[in-house]
Amino acid sequence: VTIREIRFQRIHKKLKKTFVTSLQTVNDREAIMVTIISDNGLEGFGECVAFSTPWYTEETVESCAFVMERVLKPLLQGRILSSPHEVATVFAPVKGNHMAKAAIEIAVWDLFAKYEGVPLWQYIGGIHKHIPAGVVVAAGADGLLHDIEQAVSKGYSRIKIKITAESDIDLLKEAISRYPDIMFFADANGGFNKDSFGQLTLFDDVGFSLMEQPFGKQEWDLHAQAKKQMKTPICLDESITSIHDVERMIEMQAADIIVLKMGRLGGWHETLKVVDLCRRNSIGMWVGGMIEFGISKAHNLALASLPDIVLPGDFSDSRHFWNEDVITPEIEVIDGKIELQQQAGIGYSVDLNKARL
Ligand code: OSB
Ligand code: MG
C-alpha cells in the first residue's frame, strides 16, 4: 500500500453535559481527524484524542497538530508499506508524542483492513461481535444518583464513577447497593497521594469491582502498596504509556488490571504488544474512553473484540456526549451491548462536516 495523501481536519464540539474529574472540568471537545488516502483511492481514518490542555497527559491538540503536520506526515507520505506494523518503525525516531503518532498510525490500520476487504476487528484477530457497553458518571456528588439511574435505564450494566479523596463514601455505598446487578468501577485519575492513602482504603468496602489509577502515573510503590493492602483490584490507566510500563507494573506487582488506550500507547502496534504481554501474565484488560468521537470509538470497539478482553470498557453510545457524531451509523447501545459492523475497516462511514460546535 502506498501512502498517497495524509489530511488533517480539526473539529470542535460542545459536550451535552459538563464532565467533572479530579483534574479537570471538560465542557467542550476539540479533536483532529486524520484521513489517509492510498494510491488505489482507499481512505483510512484516525482521530487524535489529545485534549485542548495537558490535564490528562502532556500532549495537547496544538502540540499534536504541530507534530502530526510538520514531523510525522513528512516521514510517512509517499511510503510504500507492506504491513501497518511498519508505521511504528517509521515513527520511532520521534520521541514521545504518542497521541499524535496514534492518530495517524490507526488510520493506516483502517486502510490496510480496507485493502484486505475485512472489518478491522477481524483483521486484528477479534472474535467478540457484541461489545458490552459501559458509561462514565463524572457529575460530582450532586448529579451522582440521577446519572446512575439514567445510565441504568439506558441499559448500561457497567458504570464507572469518577472519585476523589473527598468523595462521599456513604453516598457511594448507598448508590451502589441499590443496583446489585450493575458492575461499578471507580476512577480517581491520580487524585490520591501518600497522605491520603488511608482515605483510599475506605473505598474498599464501597462495592467497586476495581479502583482505577488512585495515585500519580509514576507512583509505582504506592500502587503496589494499595494492591497489597486492598481487596479491590487495582487498575492502571495514566501509568501505562508503553509495554515497558506494563513490564514494570508486573515486576512490581503494582496492579491487577490495565486500561488500554491506543492514544496513550501510540497506536495499534504497541497496544497489540501490550495485550499479548497482559494475556501471558494474566493481567486483566479493558478498553478506556477519552470523550471521543466515532472514529476513535470504532477503533476501540475493534480492540475490545479481542478474545482476552473480557471486562467491559468505556463504551457509551454516540449520543452520550453529543447530539451528532461524525460516523454513520451512529453507535447504539442495545440490551447493554454494541454490535460490531461487518463492513471493511472501521466499518462506519465518516462525515467530518457533522462535528460542528
Ligand atoms: O481517565 O479514563 C479516564 C475521559 C477523558 C480522559 C480520561 C478518562 C476519561 C474517562 C472516560 O473516564 C470517558 C469516556 O467514556 O470516554
Ligand atoms: Mg482513567
From TrEMBL:
* GO BP, one annotated term: menaquinone biosynthetic process
Extract the InterPro entries matched here: Enolase-like_C_sf, Enolase-like_N, Enolase_C-like, Mandelate_racemase_C, Mandelate_racemase_N_dom, OSBS/NAAAR
Gene3D superfamilies linked to this entry: Enolase-like C-terminal domain, Enolase-like, N-terminal domain
Q: Which domain of life is it from?
A: Bacteria
Q: What class of enzyme is it?
A: lyase
Provide the cofactor list for this protein: a divalent metal cation
SMART domains, from UniProt? Answer: MR_MLE
Which keywords does the record carry?
A: Lyase, Magnesium, Metal-binding
Name the UniProt record assigns to this protein: o-succinylbenzoate synthase
Q: What is its EC number?
A: 4.2.1.113
The Swiss-Prot or TrEMBL record annotates one GO molecular function as: O-succinylbenzoate synthase activity
Originating organism: Planococcus halotolerans
Boundaries of every Mandelate racemase/muconate lactonizing enzyme C-terminal domain copy: 141-233
